[in-house]
């Protein structure tokens, strides 16, 4: 497994929660949005198990909604627990990101 894959695996759940928090989103749309943000190596096959786990943990809920084209789609939205988990992810991300950035920047001098 590449370094990028290992790093991404650790933050993908938080990225998914953040995207869903912006607006209710269905699985394929999540994949497209992740690609738009530059995470084009995240496959749909890795997104759906995360969505199932987040649902089991009551961090997101899904509801079937009519689609303009094709069958109904399952749109996901954050629960109250999901909002808490997203805030915690953001806090933990900052607690890791800032020191790592400082270490890397100091090493570049």
For the structure shown, list the relevant keywords.
globular; 109 residues; single chain; alpha+beta
Notes on the structure:
The protein has four helices and three strands; from the N terminus they run αβααββα. Strand 2 and strand 3 (73-78) form a beta hairpin. It has one domain: Winged helix-like DNA-binding domain superfamily/Winged helix DNA-binding domain (Arc Repressor Mutant, subunit A), CATH 1.10.10. Helix content is 65%, strand content 13%. It has helices spanning 3-22, 27-36, 44-56, 80-107; strands at residues 25-26, 60-65, 73-78. The protein has a three-stranded antiparallel beta sheet with strand order 1-3-2. The protein is an alpha+beta fold and 109 residues long. The model has no long low-confidence stretch (mean pLDDT 92). Helix 1 (3-22) crosses helix 4 (80-107) and helix 2 (27-36) crosses helix 3.
